[in-house]
Amino acid sequence: MRGKKIFIFIVFTVINLGFVTAQPDYSNLNFWAASPYKWDTSDSIPSFLKNKKVEKKADVFFIHPTSYFGETDTSSWNAWLSSTEVNMETDYRSILFQASVFNGSCRVFAPRYRQANMEAFYKMGTPEATAAFDLAYNDVKTAFQYYLKNENKGRPIIIASHSQGTLHAIRLLQELFDGKPLQKQLVCAYIPGYQIKKEDFKDISASEKPEQTGCFAGWRSYVKGEMPKKVEPEKGNSICVNPLTWSTSTEWASPAIHKGIMLDFESIIPNTLTAGIESVTKVLWVDIPLQVLENLDYKKDLHIYDISLFWMNIRENIKLRVDNWYRQNPVKK
After folding, report:
1. CATH number, position 182
2. pLDDT attached to residue 16
3. E strands along 24-183, which residues?
4. Strand-by-strand arrangement of the 205-206 sheet
5. Poorest-pLDDT segment among 73-77, 221-225, 326-330
6. Which residue from 95, 237, 294, 300 has the highest number of Cβ atoms inside 10 Å of its Cβ?
7. Mean pLDDT of the chain
8. CA–CA separation, 104 and 102 (whole Å)
């Protein structure tokens, strides 16, 4: 009887640690949420942009945020890649509303990966959570290495992400880009939704101007005046780039330069908000009219809207940086 209990415990532990499927084979398109070799939701273009010229002169490797919300007491620590529910959540939220912002200038590559359960964030530092994040990152890195070997061919690269995706993106940039030859191909890393520590990068600098290349831009959005308690332990050890000015300056941006918030996929509302970096916590404070805030359920933590709030500013900035990268790196004929 004791042996049976031990066997059951081992089986449960193996499943709960996240070894729920074999490592994905990224030569199989099923393991990509977005790829230029199939139609997916990242290909969606809002009707108001249908007549805009599209030039896919760069590639974006997009790491999606958490779309797996199981309870760790009863669910695995890592997502099953065969889960229709998780994949639909990924495809019709982050891939549609976030990854699509890049499709005017980039081929979009977004791997499915055995993401860590949302609960792992509340148990950071435990062996189980660490193992879950490591497993997820290993998939992301494997997917990127597959892309690099088979698809890149020297093209400029954008690394993009949100939330859990940014946790993995920071690690990927540290290991493969920061101070390494691949940094020369980096247009920009758009990595909002997670803390970027001052010591995270040695050679990749924060964006200070809209056309800058080889840099990163990250922010965490809160309603103006909100001092998030979960950020207090950081003691200001964070870097924030304002996605309106594309700099770390704490000067508030004018609403006139806000190109548009995306509340639904088919409409954009320009000149809606202004934003500035809070000097102590280094989060992005966003000043939004009440009638717009109503559509955001009066949330003070605007985490899930980090990209939607600045959708058009991001889209236009991508083109600007890609064009500038080519000016700095003329193609040899």
Report:
1. 3.40.50
2. 40
3. 32-34, 58-63, 106-111, 157-161
4. 32-34, 106-111, 58-63, 157-161, 186-190, 215-217, 205-206
5. 73-77
6. 95
7. 91
8. 6
Identify the pLDDT of residue 332: 62
The 3-state secondary structure of 17-33 reads CCCCCCCCCCCCHHHEE
- Distance between CA atoms of residues 29 and 276, nearest Å: 41
Q: Domain limits at 125? A: 2-222+308-328
Residue in this structure with the two tokens 């770390």, named with its chain if needed:
248
Using alpha carbons, list the distances in angstroms from residue 168 to 7, 60, 113, 118, 172: 33, 15, 11, 14, 6
On whether the CB atoms of residues 215 and 204 are closer than 8 A, the answer is yes
Q: Are strands 221-223 and 32-34 parallel, antiparallel or unpaired?
A: unpaired
Residue 90 lies in a domain: yes
pLDDT of the residue at 70? 76
pLDDT the model gives residue 34? 98
Instruction: Please give the tally of structural domains in the chain.
Output: 1
Does residue 285 lie in a domain region? no
